[in-house]
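Q: I'm writing up a methods section and want to include an example of the input and output format. Could you take the sequence below and give the corresponding predicted structure tokens, formatted cleanly so I can copy it straight into the document?
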Amino acid sequence: MAAGLGPNRRLNLEPPQPWLHNSVMIRQVFAVATMCLFAVSGCTLAGYPSPVSYPFPDDTGSVVADVRSSGSASRTYEVFGQHYTTLASSRGYRETGVASWYGEPFHGRPTASGEVFDMYALTAAHRTLPLNTCVEVRRLIDGRTVTVKVNDRGPFADVQNRIIDLSFAAAQVIGLIDPGTAEVEVRALDDGESCG
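A: Here is the clean output for your methods example:
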């Protein structure tokens, strides 16, 4: 037995392993980079981005967007091989079908209208209504309503049933977040009629 070593100790004759030193260094660099990222991002670890605004119901219990309707010329566009033609006017539009909602993955991205999508604004995506049309969306099961501005195109999933995609805020108003979809009636407001 070597001098100075107890009965349960062995003399380490193996060469040092550089990968062990490198992995410790990599973990330390990763930890520092992660802390810097959290500091720069305002310490947001999870959840939704900070809201731009939050809608509150008016005296009647309805929530409405603060924009004006406008008509536009029709045009044809293609998504996933399917062609859609926008309506020249929203006058008289009324449809019953399924509403869905979209939020965080699209927050901050440009919409079809050129606006930046704000999941906390009262907006919606529709395949054929003119952009900037204001519509009232009424949930059929309980009559809750929200008025939104169409500023995007969609929904493009389940196109046989879904007729409108609501922003997170609009979906929250009519109780659409947990179920994800619901039967609704969509009614376009008259041209020039204020959303709010």
